Amino acid sequence: MSRRTKLLITLLFLVLLAIPAVYVALTWSPVNPLRIRIAPAAGRAPLPIEPLGYYVLPIEVENTSSTTVHLMHVSPSISPPSSTSRGDSAVELPFLLNHIRSFSIVIPPHSTVPAHLTIYRKDLAIAELNGSLWAKYGWVSIRKATTMRFMEWIGSFPPGSWCEPVPHPRPDYDSVPVEFPKGTAASFGISLEPTSGFEGRGPLSR
Questions:
Q1: Exposed, middle or buried, 85 (CB in 10 Å: 0-12/13-18/19+)?
Q2: Cα–Cα distances in Å, from 39 out to 114, 166, 181, 202?
Q3: Least CB-packed of 65, 99, 148, 205 within 10 Å?
């Protein structure tokens, strides 16, 4: 076999190795993959939760990336969050995996799923005055979730403590402006006058 042939075979082998590596790199943590919008059926009648002073907004969550995403939670914000970040690496892996298995919403690539955003009535009224609403969300890609499960499985074999110093993948946190149905504004007819003395914000619910 000539030297040139060996070189071509080596280059071909490296290219074949690079293809899955590039794919994993692109789908490991895509940039801000989700879009959140008020469901068209929501209209101007958010569902109140009394006497806590919350409203439930039906939303649609769109995954614009090429990989499946586990949506862990969404929280409303009346102004753009200051920054995006990653989750705390000190959170134990079993806790993260249990949260992903039990509470996350699985969104396939280039798909849209329904969900609900729970927001305090005063925040909703302020969002109406400002004409905008933001959402911050925590998520992990299916590649990260699979890696977490693999690390948990490896750690189940004695001595399981050997992998404890290895940092596990962390969730990502991003924020997006909440989109409203075309032809409508951020208006729900919500008054700033409180109906109860409870202050706070609510979690994502399905």
A1: middle
A2: 8, 42, 7, 19
A3: 205
In sign, the C-alpha dihedral spanning 87, 206, 191, 176 is: positive
pLDDT in tens, 121-168: 888 888 888 888 999 999 999 999 988 888 877 777 766 555 566 677
Burial bucket for residue 50 (CB in 10 Å: 0-12, 13-18, 19+): exposed
- Identity of the amino acid at 187: S
pTM for this model (two decimals):
0.73
Inter-residue contact 180 to 40 (CB < 8 Å): no
Distance CA 124, CA 102 (A): 28
Full DSSP string of 21-64: HHHHHHHHS-SS-EEEEE-GGGTT-PEEETTTTEEEEEEEEEE-
Name the one residue in this structure whose structure tokens are 């806590």: 52
